[in-house]
C-alpha cells in the first residue's frame, strides 16, 4: 500500500555539440517520474497514513533497490515510499 511506481529519466543520448554517446558510456540517472502511488502506509491500528507523493512528481532515487517491473514493454521500478530519497521541486 505504500508503494510508488517510478520511471527513471533516460540519460542524454548526445552532447550539446551533437556527438552521440554510446549506451555503455551513458550514466544511469538517479532521478525519475512518479507514475502511480498507493493509498499510503497502513499502521498496526489499521489507520492509513496518506502518501506525500503524487503522480507526476520528480523524485531522487537510491542507486540500488526497488523491484524492476515491465509494463507494456516499458521498464518501471517499484519502491516503498520510505526508499525514495527526495522529492525534487
From TrEMBL:
GO terms for cellular component: mitochondrial matrix. The keyword Membrane does not apply. One of its GO terms (biological process) is chaperone-mediated protein complex assembly. The keyword Chaperone applies. Keywords: Chaperone, Stress response. It comes from the Eukaryota. GO terms for molecular function: ATP binding; metal ion binding; protein folding chaperone; protein-folding chaperone binding; unfolded protein binding. PANTHER family: 10 KDA HEAT SHOCK PROTEIN, 10 KDA HEAT SHOCK PROTEIN, MITOCHONDRIAL. Eukaryotic CPN10 homolog which is essential for mitochondrial protein biogenesis, together with CPN60. Binds to CPN60 in the presence of Mg-ATP and suppresses the ATPase activity of the latter. Belongs to the GroES chaperonin family. This is Putative heat shock protein 10.
Amino acid at each position: 500500500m505504500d508503494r510508488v511506481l517510478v520511471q527513471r529519466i533516460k540519460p542524454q543520448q548526445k552532447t550539446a555539440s551533437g556527438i552521440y554517446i554510446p549506451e555503455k558510456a551513458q550514466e544511469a540517472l538517479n532521478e525519475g517520474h512518479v507514475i502511480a502511488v498507493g493509498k499510503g502506509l497502513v499502521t498496526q491500528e489499521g489507520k492509513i497514513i496518506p502518501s506525500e507523493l503524487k503522480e507526476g512528481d520528480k523524485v531522487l532515487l537510491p542507486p540500488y533497490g526497488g523491484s524492476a517491473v515491465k509494463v507494456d514493454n516499458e521498464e518501471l521500478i517499484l519502491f516503498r515510499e520510505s526508499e525514495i530519497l527526495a522529492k525534487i521541486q
